[in-house]
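Risk register update: the risk of archive-format incompatibility is retired. Evidence:
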Amino acid sequence: MNVLKNAAMLGLSLGMLAYAVPRLHAGEGLTAGSVFAVVWICLALVIVSAHLHTALGVGERTKERLRQVKRMRSWQRERDWQRRTRAYGTRK
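Archived output:
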């Protein structure tokens, strides 16, 4: 269901962008209307890129990689702690 929702929102975002860009007056110099048009287009592109990011599953791969790194660091800390405690115990 989440994939379908994301695909629908991506389609709506692209449709909104395709509908609005020809109607915006972005090439009139530095006027309030052209500044609004540029800002609006940039925000719409950010929304489209966020939907593409989710659709491609980049976030899930990143989360899995972070989990792996955390597990490895935890294992390394435990190993180092065990080595230090063994070394401390043999000094007596």
